[in-house]
Design goal:
With about 150 residues, this protein is an alpha+beta fold. It has one domain (about 5-145): Sufe protein. Chain: A, CATH 3.90.1010.10. It is about 45% helix and about 20% strand. The protein has a four-stranded mixed beta sheet with strand order 3-2-1-4, with helices on one face. Strand 1 (about 30-35) and strand 2 (about 40-50) form a beta hairpin. Helix 1 packs across helix 2, helix 2 packs parallel to helix 5 and helix 3 (about 85-100) runs antiparallel to helix 5. It is globular. Bound molecules: zinc ion (ZN).
Length: about 150
């Protein structure tokens, strides 16, 4: 990872870890899911309010490492207001990014702040921390109410 991206990565992780966005349970959620990454011990409960296939509101609670928390915080702030299908498409891109499949620099740049997570692709265990909240999002969008694990 180049120096600039590394610095940005640390900034984003620190910032979202210190003051996570949307860190609350939504009492009016109509979609929810629970995610668990047993390798690291990361847990997340995700709450969504979906209306007309749009993510109207989103909140999460959980405990885990800095990467999982920062990733969840960033994910919730990005998908809020997004159409369901766009969020699903973004998940695919994010997944390709952290697993090292997305290499086109323009496409990576389009991901905005999410691009900083490119750094985890060299650390397979961290890929799961970074993608846990996204897997949980997909489960919740498909009307989960079930537990997803990164080990399935
Ligand atoms: Zn973790």
């Amino acid at each position: 990872m180049d120096e600039e991206l590394r610095e940005l990565y640390q900034q984003v992780i620190l910032d979202h870890n210190k003051s996570p966005r949307n860190f609350k349970k939504l009492e009016n959620a109509n979609h929810s899911a629970e995610g668990y990454n047993p390798l690291c011990g990361d847990k997340i409960n995700l709450y969504l309010v979906i209306e007309d296939d749009v993510v109207k509101d989103v909140g999460f609670q959980g405990s885990g490492c800095a990467i999982s928390k920062a990733s969840a915080s960033l994910m919730t702030s990005i998908v809020k207001g997004m159409k369901k299908e766009d969020a699903e498409r973004l998940f695919e891109k994010f997944h390709d990014l952290v697993t090292g499949k997305l290499t086109d620099e323009n496409e990576i740049e389009e991901l905005g702040k999410l691009a900083v997570f490119a750094g985890v692709r060299d650390f397979p265990a961290r890929v799961k921390c970074a993608s846990l909240s996204w897997h949980t999002l997909i489960s919740a969008l498909q009307d989960g109410k079930k537990v997803v694990s990164t080990e399935e």
